[in-house]
Every structure is written in C-alpha cells, then in structure tokens.
Amino acid sequence: MKKLLTLLIAITIWSCAKNKEVVDTVIVNANVYTVNNTFDKAEAFAVKDGKFVAIGTSKAITDKFDAENILDVSGKTIVPGFIDAHCHFYGLGLEQNRVNLAETSSFDEVMKRVLDFQNTKQTNFIIGLGWDQNDWEEKAFPNNKLLNALFPNTPVALTRIDGHAMLCNQAALDLAGITKQTKIEGGEVVIENNELTGILIDNPMAMVEAVYPNPTKQEQINALLQAQDICFDLGLTTVSDAGLDKSVIQLIDSLQQTGGLNMRVYAMVSNTQKNLDYYLNNGPIKTDKLNVQSVKVYADGALGSRGAALKKTYSDKHNHFGTMVTNPKNIKALAKKIEQANFQMNTHAIGDSANRVVLQAYKAALKDKKDKRWRVEHAQVLTNNDIEFFKDSNIIPSVQPTHATSDMYWVEDRLGADRIKQAYAYKELLKASGKIALGTDFPIEKVSPFLTFYAAVSRQDLEEFPEGGFQKENALTREEALKGMTIWAAYANFEDQEKGSIEKGKFADFVILDKDIMAVEVNKIPTIKVESLFIDGEEQ
C-alpha cells in the first residue's frame, strides 16, 4: 500500500509538471514594480523568447510555468530596465580616453589634470571635458595664456561641462583657422584687450572639433563597448543618444546585429545636411535594438556659459541675451521639413527665448497632426505662460533632473530672483503635458539613474542641500520619477508598446536592485546598487 501511495504521488507530480508551460526563465519571490497603467506590484513573472509571458504571484506563476532557470530573488526589488531619455552614449565612450576635468575646484587643478594626462598618454592633440568656472573661487572664464606656455606646439581643446564653451590654446586655434577676425553666427569667439582668449562659445567650437584626430574604427568600437559596460553596471537597458552621425549609427547597427553590442539605442540624428539628406530621404530605421526616427537640433546654448537665449538680459551680464545657435527662421523651416519626412524633432532649448521659438515652430508644423511626440530637450527656462504649449499632446518635455541640482548654486545669478521661479519646473511641465521623459545628459552629468531619481524627488545635492529642496514645489513623486525613467521615456521614443514596463508581450528588460527604490530613505537612493541586469531575459 505504501509503494502504491508513493507511485500515485509521483504520477501526480509528473502529470502536473507535464501540464505546465515550459519557459526560459521564471523569477519568484520578488518585489516587482511593473509600472503598468495602474502601477501594479507583483511577486513573479515568466520569460520566454526574450519577452514577458506572464506576471503575477509566485504561486500563480510556478503553478502554470516550469523552467530550467528558476530564480528566487528573496524579496529583492525588480523594476523595468532604466531608459535614459537624453544622453551621449557614444560620447561617454570617447571620453574614457580624454582628460576628465569634472569637479575641478580651480583652473590650477584643470592644468594639473591636463599635465598628468599628457605625461601618461603623450597624445598629438589633447582633448578634455568637464571644467566649470562656477565651481571655482574665480568664476570668470579662464584664458589660454598658461596653456600656450605649457603646450606651444600641441593643440589643446578643453570643453566646458555643458558642452557649449571651449578653451583652446593657440596651437588649436591656428589649426582650426580661428583668428580675431573670425565671425560665426550662433556663437562667439571671445576677445579681450584685442587678443584671443581661447574661449569659444557654441558654433565656433565646431571649427576646432572638425580638426580633432579621427578615431579609428577599433577605437569607436571600444568606445561603444566601454560606454555599454558603464551603463549596464548602473541599470540602463536603453539609451537615447542625443545626436549621432550616420557613420556611428551604422556602426552601432552592425555591432548589434553581430551580438557585440546589446544596449538598445534610440539614435537621434545630428542636424547636418549630410545626415538629413540621407535619413529624411530614406526613412526611419527600426530593429529590436536600434530606432532611428528623430533629428536632434540645437536652438541655443547653455546658462552656465551664458549662451542660453533669454527674452530679457542676463542678470549678471548687462545687455547680454545669449545666443540662438540655429536661426529662428531655420528652425521653423527645419520643423516643416522634418514633419514632412515623418521624423520626430527633438530640440535643445534652454533659455526662455529659445523655448518660445521652438514651441511656436512646433505648433505651426504640427497643426492638425496627431501623436507626433516631438520633444523639447531640457525645457529649462519658460516664461510668459509658455508651459501652456505642452498641453498640446504632440509636445513632450524631456528634462534632466540633475541639471537642476548642479545649476542651483549659481543659476539665480544668471536669471534673477523672479525668473528663476520659472526654471527647472518639472512638476509644472508634467501637469501640462501628462508625461515627462527623464535623462541625464551624460557625460555632462553622471550616468547613474539613481542620481536622476534622487534629484527628481528631493531636489537636493548629495549633501542634502538645500534644506527642504531647491524649489521643492517642482519635485516629482517617486512614482512619477520611475515612470519618467521607464514607460514615459519609452513613450517619448515611440517604444512604449515594447518596453518601459513589466507586462506580457514586452521585451524582458529588467534590473534587480539591492534596495527598494520606492521605499528606502530618500538620502539612501544614490547608494542603490544594481545586482543584476537582464535584456531579452538574458543576464548581461
């Protein structure tokens, strides 16, 4: 009788297992934030052929599914793979082999890093990024006298943290053909005492960048793979690269097709005539890993270098209004051209004047159109009720919360006490638009999505300054922040039907965290670590 009972139990177990659907992976005992329409939580899910096939309780999933890979995560938090809605992925990779000038406290420290770099690398052209005079005791732009003395023959180009100003030595200026007579629309060659200072603001920078040594194909590949490693470690599964040339986009596609690059990339095409001629005539490109259907345009410069285009003069520089990098008439014509090609237009606009120009151009080009999802990148300063433009469902704000906490120390000097109240207004933008896409603008800011989340909800720096938060009325809730880094960022990329939430039929892109991002103390958010990252259900 005992043998018969054992046999019956075995048959029952075998029969139940036989009736289960076999999948690739089952995750159980998890704290899952699905980020679906009702922001439901779950305990478990099943993955097959790279997609979620079911989400529910651990019992419901294990009763229905069997898998060779069953992962019990012991209550750990799982969220959809993070999406950076605005970054420079390829640029991050390139910067790994350039001088890192971020968080320097003086120009002397900048020079020490440049000297240390060159003593090690011995390059023929020194390129650096990251200095910010606002972090120094002397907050004026530096000049190139010391660079000229130290490097009389080696070209040196050091770009400001915002990417909108550059310090060059004379060797670099000579190589680029820049003289005191050089005039470039949409920027400035700064001259003091009838001498070149070496400071270039916005469009003249392109003359120097044009003479940079071209990276080899292998260097480009290495840059992309290095950037991928950095991003994967921090939980990013999709990046929206804000400005790429055709050759780099094609290299990304090639590496993805051969399996060398697994990062999903939403590639915004850089606004050059060559790129536009190719992509607007040939149409969008869409694979599971690459999406090319947008054009990145620059309307103005940045506040830190006083290049952002303002309606009224800068508070700390009389009769200075910043710079429109692209002429307003050209923005309007470009908007019409991009819309006719059925591409998305994503425009950098920092100052209130630039934002008004862009929003008016969008409104004219998109009249009577539906679901175009054109984006204003940064949308930093908006006055005279310009936020109302975002009530048009065709227009999405794409912002970077760490810009607010990086700029808050000095931005009132630029804008004044009244105008600053209408800057970095993320909550107001969300109220108007219903959705807001969050990114970092890395490598201008740090890559970590946890810093993005923290800045969005706390409006403080890592020292918890200022007490109560910077213009805290425009902080986002944790739910809004998570949506902005997942489903809303996917929506801004026309990809919300395939990613951005843990739902049946979507790509199985998810990350396992060591802390609960929705419940941990606010000041602990920046310390969250990624324990595992999955793309298409495969751990990377």
Describe it.
The chain is an alpha/beta fold. The chain has 3 domains: 1-75, Urease, subunit C, domain 1 (Roll); 99-210, Diaminopimelate Epimerase, Chain A, domain 1 (Roll); 217-539, TIM Barrel (Alpha-Beta Barrel). The protein is built from 18 helices and 25 strands. The strands form 4 sheets. Strands 8, 15, 16, 17, 18, 19, 20, 21 and 22 form a 9-stranded mixed beta sheet that branches. α5 (145-150) links the parallel β10 (126-131) and β11 (156-160). It is globular. The chain starts with a helix and ends with a strand. Mean pLDDT is 94; it is low at 1-16.
Please describe the structure with a list of short key phrases separated by commas or semicolons.
540 residues, alpha/beta, Urease, subunit C, domain 1, Diaminopimelate Epimerase, Chain A, domain 1, TIM Barrel, 3 domains, 9-stranded mixed sheet, 6-stranded mixed sheet, disordered N terminus, Metal_Hydrolase
TL;DR of this structure?
This protein has 540 residues and is α/β, with parallel strands linked by helices.
Blueprint (SSEs and pairs):
Blueprint: H1 2-19, E1 21-28, E2 31-33, E3 41-42, E4 44-48, E5 51-56, H2 58-64, E6 65-72, E7 77-80, E8 82-87, H3 89-95, E9 99-100, H4 107-121, E10 126-131, H5 145-150, E11 156-160, E12 165-168, H6 170-176, E13 187-192, E14 195-202, H7 205-209, H8 217-233, E15 236-244, H9 246-258, E16 264-270, H10 273-282, E17 285-286, E18 290-298, H11 328-340, E19 344-349, H12 352-365, E20 374-378, E21 395-399, H13 401-407, H14 411-419, H15 426-433, E22 437-438, H16 449-458, H17 478-484, H18 487-492, E23 510-513, E24 530-535, E25 538-539
Parallel strand pairs: 1-6, 2-7, 8-15, 9-10, 10-11, 15-16, 16-18, 18-19, 19-20, 20-21, 21-22
Antiparallel strand pairs: 1-4, 2-3, 4-5, 7-23, 11-12, 12-14, 13-14, 17-18, 23-24, 24-25
Helix pairs in contact: 3-8, 11-12, 13-16
